[in-house]
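RETRY 2/3 - previous attempt timed out on the joint model. Re-submitting the same 644-residue input unchanged.
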Amino acid sequence: MPELLTTRITARFADLRARRAKGLIVYLTAGDPTLDATGELLVALERAGVDVIELGVPFSDPLADGPVIQRASERALRSGTTLRRILARFPDWRQAVRAPIILFSYYNPILQYGLASFAAAAARAGVDGALVVDLSPEEAENYVGVMWAQNLDTVFLASPTSPDERLERAARLSRGFFYLISRTGVTGERREIASGVEPLVERVRRVTSLPLAVGFGISTPAQVREVQRHADAAVVGSAVVHVIEARYSQEGPGAIEEFVRGLRAGAGGRPE
Amino acid sequence: MHPVEELEAAYQAARRDPAFQAELAHLLKDFAGRPTPLFHAQRLSERLGDAQIYLKREDLLHTGAHKINNCLGQGLLARRMGKTRLVAETGAGQHGVATATVAALLGLECVVYMGAEDMARQAPNVFRMRLLGARVVSVTSGAKTLKDAINEGMRDWVTNVQNTHYLMGSVLGPHPYPMMVRDFQRIIGQETRQQVLEKVGRLPDLLCACVGGGSNSIGLFYDFIADRSVKMLGVEAGGRGPTLGEHAARFAGGKPGVLHGSYTYVLQTEDGLIASTHSVSAGLDYPAVGPEHAALFRRNRVEYTHVSDPEALEAARLLSQVEGIIPALESAHALAEIVKRAPGMPRDQIIVVNLSGRGDKDLGIFQASGML
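RETRY 2/3 succeeded.
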């Protein structure tokens, strides 16, 4: 890995480590239900103390996602959200939010934008990195090179079924943090999280010194706390999107801020 | 992504295992009914004027289409991998029926994902799958057709990968599927080659097949790719016309992109969202084409064209009334292109059309079209 300029993500995890605190990462879909709403929601997440935000780029065929994020994607597409429009609005959001924001996207919208143009535009707009959910590490060398040239972080996923060799490859291409899927399958809330988190975290610690985030299926303060016992950060996606779906139109961004504060209360040990 | 690596390792071992190949050959012969005949359609040839048209009769296979070739192969592979459950997507229902059939034969659980819209227009196949013991799950997301059924099938697979094999029905999806499905369909071309040499003593001049995902066409073409004298023609669904959303002609209206783990020609918007498609034939109604076809297109080895819904319907009526064979609407697309091209070709030219499936499932559509 080449020498890096410190990114917002690296700085945030360094800060957490220095304070012996654990992080909370939250996902939401851009344009759900509108891009104006996204601006408000990003500010709400910042106020709630979220450490990293994953901003989903809606896609027509979100095959890694469960029903909650599929519906969010459909709402966002109905409001005309595209990667181009997200990047056009991003500088405004960046000014209002200090937390690092990465784009969570499928590969085809980026490919059609043009990989090099996308990386340049994202960096210019103040995006901190990307997670391309259907781009496997085996196919990602070129992508990673282009992103790193713009000093954008690249996050890859590893699952409990990944053999060590695959974990190493994914970790080598990751920058900022490394994302562990707590169980196999698609995104979505689960009552219980898989018991495999602790051994997986231990395996991954052996292959990388990157901060480790664990996600997929985490929806309650207790689950956040459980994940944070082992990993550096917990990722909550569908549970937050569910609250946006159920409450945003009636109650506005405050309801989401309150819900996310509740998740963080579970985190414990992180003073304001 | 580990599941595809596990699958590739298992497939590479199976393809070299004589016991696996012997069991597959036995089931293709005694269960599915191979080899299928190569039939000289003399009245059709005369009607269209000049060239000699031969039909590769995949429609005579058990379950009514070429799909069973691939399902037997992958079903045996799944059992060998210790999987107890098959999931599949289906558009027209032919692949779902073939998967349900193989699941019953091998004693495996079967779940088939099918778009709600396709379930309505291919109702007889839904009943067949249920009678065979499969659970048919209606997919109501997205456009409610084949691509959405693949999304759901893949979601099921990655969630239940420990006991489940995803039985992809065409030369689509991530590696090794396009290669593996092609290998299981190659037998179409291998038999055709032998049969045409026996019947006319030389290689054919033109091969023609419809292209949805592209499994029946790659199956016919593959063993002739090195024979430069053999021209090849793939026929896509022209649907109702050239507007995006009204057809499934990926080579005419698509551009390179990524869908379902393949980099290939995809019908899509400028922003990289996958477009909806239309065809009178549910089996061709898909926005991407198998990546090997994209490579053959780029190399100019295969010519790709498309015919409209009415042209396909009319070709189906012609074959029914001239030869006494009711083709599937998918296969009728290949015939429709030959209806255009055969007149004027030299008399000694040999054309082989892959009659990939039979038309029983389409009776409702023929009726609704008002042509009867």
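Chain A has a mean pLDDT of 92. Closing ticket.
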